[in-house]
């Protein structure tokens, strides 16, 4: 007699409904393979990719180069709806708009669209929640819910491009020009989906949106293994490193992953990235009153960066609810900037676009004054 197997239910990982596969999850080659596996000629994959990335169309009715009877199946297989708008909140007279998206399993993520005189930037989420646990960041407090698929990340970008093309922002029709991975999540902790997305952004028609890698910023807490891998991808996106302090002692608490990779190692990885890609990198630094805004820290940061091809982006802290921390005093901020500049380090203070809609809480902020990644 066999002993019945006892299942320890509490030992089972949470079974999530799988995110449907989308053409944005596949490489162009795999898309053509998928078409063939459905008994279609490979060029159908290119046609649907053109509708999606070039015409930003998610309505198969308009895909007139594809036989009408095939459109439904093709749309189901290639472009299932992955994100649904829950609501939008606007400020700055509509020039800043935060969209809240519901994913197929009910998980919520946000993106922020910002129009400037010379560009339109979307700030997107790469994960639902975040596992990095930085104490000043709202997303970090909630922990990681799950990684987003490349389809779910790309959908946020395509939705933003569509909103621009439809003239939804004041000022009429526009072209989405910049993409920053500064929403929820640590992009390099969701490496494959993020790099697939980077290719969807930069590949020319029909394979992607054809947006220049120079206009894309990937912001990281400093996962050295991820930076090293990205260096080998041949993607010249702008790297931003969330440093927040030049000394390991404080950084161990502000950016807990610092206990794994110290400042020296993070900067060495960023330098290697800069060397390979020729792209100046950004150092992000949230200025927190009396925590990391002392002049000696600015001095130390200046010495650390003076011979590096890096630019400092100071972000006035946007306090999270219940936080004991707040933004630096104006005069301390000005002194911090002055000291850095005395070392010849380029520095900008990010504007606080979208603050009223919690869009400038850092994780959802990308409004960098005078710091357009395109120059
Ligand atoms: N995980 C990535 C990207 C997400 S956030 C990273 O850490 O870089 C984008 C930037 O906003 C990061 O520099 C992050 O440290 C910063 N940030 C997070 N919360 C903030 C807050 N409350 N105020 C100001 N900046 C914040």
Automatic annotation (TrEMBL):
The keyword Methyltransferase is assigned to this record: yes
UniProt subcellular location: Cytoplasm
Pfam families named in the record: Radical_SAM (PF04055)
GO cellular component terms, semicolon-separated: cytoplasm
Location of the Radical SAM core domain: 116-356
Binding positions for [4Fe-4S] cluster per the UniProt entry: 130, 134, 137
Matches recorded under HAMAP family: RNA_methyltr_RlmN (MF_01849)
Additional remark text: Reaction proceeds by a ping-pong mechanism involving intermediate methylation of a conserved cysteine residue.
Protein name, entry field: Probable dual-specificity RNA methyltransferase RlmN
Lineage, highest ranks first: Bacteria, Bacillati, Actinomycetota, Actinomycetes, Candidatus Nanopelagicales
Gene designation per UniProt: rlmN
